[in-house]
């Protein structure tokens, strides 16, 4: 079979660090394994535009593997040219770079390595929340630049203790963020999601569900966004959403860049409606040099906690999603059933409620949040 692997280039870093598996150099550690079985592997980072290697090789590829960090966007138009494609694997979590309805129509299976980096992202969120509330980034920049002005930093530094923190979307990542925040003695840990957590899960972290989204937005001092990108959530962080937040809210989005309208976020930060915006996800990726989130700041010249998309691609996460991808391929080659939690679409139907028919989500499905 022909397998097309779209990854980011690791360059010198990948040569020096073989554990950087998610790079074009190290090929998820599966190139020899595939060659030994007689499969053809084509690896590229060149993914944009009709003349790209991605577009050239997708036409006769049987399997596409890509990551959310440097996604080969499998649009309906691209799929129309991909006549042999049977399986699209996301080495990581989040398959919104694929037109899932179009994949369903063509009976292309979409699978991801569910859970592979959820702890990695949850830790990044906790780090970003603390950096935000305590005004850490401007403080660090100040000393690196030779300065010393305690008051300029302390005027916008707070404790996390006593603040109301909420997750918008309380699945695997959102729940893990709340779990990790429990010892900080926040005033309240809240969540907004379609379905309630099992009682045992919410009791374990002492969190409360808020059923009305506007009420949730109004109550939180800090919000972490953990919903998948789908038709309903695309662009949801817009002027209207931002105007409903408590003034000076700290907003963290490690879910997907396209959940937000970039200019609206920059404007809200500059006007003081939000005190901070941070996270690691952008649209498109790689982010262009003039993306507003590269330079936006609040009126005190801080408030920007953006990084390149790396929260879910720590070396530990890379090992897990590389192993998970190999397992998905092994099952596919052997004609075995995939792990149900890894399936996004199969046989022309959604196999998950995360991207589609979410209102019917059951408590049973929600139980996976803790057990995956
Ligand atoms: P999950 O499927 O376990 O949880 C998602 C939750 O969001 C579900 O409980 C679902 O009911 C809820 N939800 C969906 N739409 C919603 C809406 N409109 N309002 C409220 N809740 C809604 O997924 P997860 O593993 O927690 O991952 C969440 C997302 O995080 C992924 O889809 C992906 O986009 C992103 N992610 C980012 C990185 C990174 O490196 N930054 C890594 C992994 C995942």
Write a brief caption for the model.
This protein has 372 residues and is an alpha/beta fold.
Question: Which ions and ligands are bound to the chains?
Answer: nicotinamide-adenine-dinucleotide
Strand order of the largest sheet: 2-1-3-4-5-13-14
Low-confidence stretches: 357-365
Reading the helices and strands in chain order gives EHHEHEHEHEHHHEHEHEHEHEHEEHEEHH
Which whole number gives the mean pLDDT?
Answer: 95
Q: Proportion of β residues? A: 15-25%
- The end-to-end distance, rounded to whole angstroms, is 31 Å
Structural class label:
alpha/beta
Largest sheet: 7 strands, mixed
Number of strands: 14
Instruction: Please tell me how large the radius of gyration is.
Output: 21 Å
Helix content: 25-40%
Number of helices: 16
Global morphology: globular
Key attributes of the depicted protein:
single chain, 16 helices, globular, alpha/beta, about 375 residues, binds nicotinamide-adenine-dinucleotide, 14 strands
Describe this structure in words.
The protein has 16 helices and 14 strands. With 372 residues, it is an alpha/beta fold. Helix 4 (76-81) links the parallel strand 3 and strand 4. It is globular. It starts with a strand and ends with a helix. The model is unreliable at 357-365 (pLDDT under 50). The site of nicotinamide-adenine-dinucleotide has 32 residues, from helix 6 and helix 9. Nicotinamide-adenine-dinucleotide binds next to helix 6 and helix 9.
